[in-house]
Amino acid sequence: MVKKLLAAIFLCLASTQLFAHKVEGVSINLQKIDGNTIKVEAETRGQGKKMHGNKVRLVSMIDKKVLAEGMLDRKNGCIFQIPKESYQVFVFVGEQDVVKEGPPPSGGFDKVVESHEGRAFNYMLTISLLFLVGSIFIALYKTVSLHKKRGLKMY
Amino acid sequence: MKLSKYNFRFLTRAHVVVGLFAVFLFYIATFFGSITMFAPYIKIWESPSRHFDISDKNNSGIDLDAVLKNVIAANNLPTKNIEITFPSYRDNALKVSVENQAVIYVNPNNGSILHTSDESYTVSSFLNELHTGANIPMVGMPLMGLASTAMIFLSIGGVMLFLSARRKAAEKKDRLWWHKYLGLWLLPYIVVFTFTGAFLGLMLSSSSPFALGATNFEESNMRKLVAPIIFKKKMEPKESNSTHDALSIADLKQKASIQYPNLHITTVNLYAYNKDNYEAMFSGYLGDNQSISGRNNRMSITLNGINGDVVKKVHIEDSHIIKRALSAFYFLHFLPDQGAEWRIAFFVFGIVMAICLIAGYLVWSDRKLRSDGIFHHILNKIAIAFFIGVLPATAVLFASNWILRFDMYDRDIWIKGAFYATWAFVLFYAFLEASILNAIRKYLLWFAVLMSSAVLMHAAKNGYFLSGVNIANMSDTVFFVDAGMLLSSLLAMLAYVFIGRFKYIKQYEQRSLEAW
């Protein structure tokens, strides 16, 4: 019983979350109006209320330059020309920001970089899991070898 | 009070089983909770924009109205409800915010707008997340609450066991001695913090069944249901177009402190700023009643902005009883308005508590030392990775704040990920290394190296490096956080050198070498 409980606790501790650039209950909608313009809107998920007065930024994914900046309007959201390079849309809510990668213009981007979404998470999760699996592997190996060597009890 | 023989045995067994369940979780809560005591200072340390001292504590040096007009124009803010938080030890910047829209920080010494868009206070907020268990989705917070509840049981049970145990004539100072007496000395601290912690962790996070039951399965968020009643918001006034000459914020603040002398003003809400229905609500805590007027039950006084007449004054008797109770709970757990001396005292208590928990684990582990099973050895490895391995992982958190670029995308995920990856590596190393002593010494060494390199990196990135003039100009808070980190790495180095001399580690070492 003790062993099972402890195993359950360690499993819970291992399954941690890594979230960023997300504000509880706020979502961004990106809508292409025509080939070269995009409409940015943000709304609170619960009530579906449109947010307004928030700062919006289009940021290049290549050199982190701010490509365009605007303010969410009460009715029309915020309308931008789509840049010619890969970009992210930042909407600032208080001290936090919500980020989404923007769609390409009709002719495609001139300069493209790989998507950054989830990259940090995937790298770090892989490294952590590698070590955890390694630990479990060693523990199993030692258990089995000790069991064989001395004929000991498993527990 | 003496327990019968069977009850005594039963309670002892229960103490061991529940203790083994709670010790790991509660160690995490205690360790990170103790560090979180310093979270406001760490927040200042980790963000380069706050590396200054407040030269004038009453910040009457700058013209608040001019600064505010500048901020409004630069960010196109609506003037319906602007909140200004005055600088404090929590944050030395002046905070101007509009709910759900924008937060702008201003240097209170010269009124310039600070560039904070790259800063996210990852380290201090992540330490708090680890403390509450919020880093684990869904189950984390209730789990920490359960551990706190278990801790209440353990401390009551522990006292009962202590009272009815037969004491030998001459007690050795063994693990049980440390566990027993450290626990007893800390009993008031443990009771207060576990009780409030259990309430915050277990009850607040698991109130959704009650919320669902009360609303026929329509709403699961209890806060949404009760907040409109308990935290009633002031009706925001209609935006009027006609501007009006008004008193300056500094004058209004002075008038407010004359009308309500006991109030320590922390924030002011400006409704319809400089319009003809302009009102200013000054809120803060009461000097003689800090526990009841905590962060979620602020007292306030509302003044008419045009002529400075008192519109409304909220006294302690006017506030909702639940708000008062909540405020007292929060006061006991968070020390919202307390300064450094309290925080250092509770930090020391927390570290002593952590030692008490480790001693408790060792009591169990000692008894199992002669048993042949492998499970005990594996748990010992996990225990050192938990109890001591958490040190290098935390140091990585501090160091990576200055290693990584500030404008990096997903910076906070890289930092948090580095923490988890290090901790996983520490566990891996514990399994890899047969000698327990070596593993512990390596952890202490890594901690010392990482912690001092975090300080050096911080110095290099902010230009304090080996220059007496620059160090003399350093902000006090930043200097003391740096000094504390250097001190902790020095202590770790001392432990690294002297830990081999403790006799009882040797028996663990021997058993571990035999089995692994």
Describe this structure in words.
- The complex is a heterodimer of chains A (155) and B (516).
- In chain A, 29% of the residues lie in helices and 30% in strands.
- Chain A has helices at 2-14, 119-150, and strands at residues 26-34, 37-44, 55-60, 66-71, 78-81, 87-93, 96-101.
- Chain A has a four-stranded antiparallel beta sheet, with no helix packed on it. Chain A has a three-stranded antiparallel beta sheet with strand order 1-2-5, with no helix packed on it.
- In chain A, a hairpin with a 2-residue loop joins strand 6 (87-93) and strand 7.
- Chain A is elongated and about 75 Å long.
- With 516 residues, chain B is an alpha+beta fold.
- Chain B has 19 helices and seven strands.
- Chain B has helices at residues 5-36, 39-46, 64-75, 122-132, 140-164, 175-185, 187-203, 208-214, 222-230, 249-259, 321-334, 340-368, 375-387, 390-403, 411-432, 436-462, 468-472, 476-498, 503-515, and strands at residues 81-85, 94-98, 102-106, 263-271, 279-286, 299-304, 310-314.
- A seven-stranded antiparallel beta sheet of chain B has the order 3-2-1-4-5-6-7, with helices on one face.
- In chain B, helix 2 packs across helix 18, helix 13 packs antiparallel against helix 15 (411-432) and helix 14 (390-403) runs antiparallel to helix 15 (411-432).
- SSE string of chain A: HEEEEEEEH
| Beta content of chain B | 5-15%
Kindly report the oligomeric state of this protein: heterodimer
Shape of chain A: elongated
The Rg value of chain A, from CA coordinates, equals: 24 Å
Overall pLDDT metric of chain B: 85
Order of strands in the sheet with most strands of chain A: 4-3-6-7
As a percent range, the share of helical residues of chain B equals 55-70%
Tally the beta strands of chain A: 7
For the largest interface in this structure, which chains are involved and how many residues does each contribute?
A: A-B, 55 and 56 residues
Question: Unreliable segments of chain A (pLDDT under 50, ≥5 consecutive)?
Answer: none
Number of helices of chain B: 19
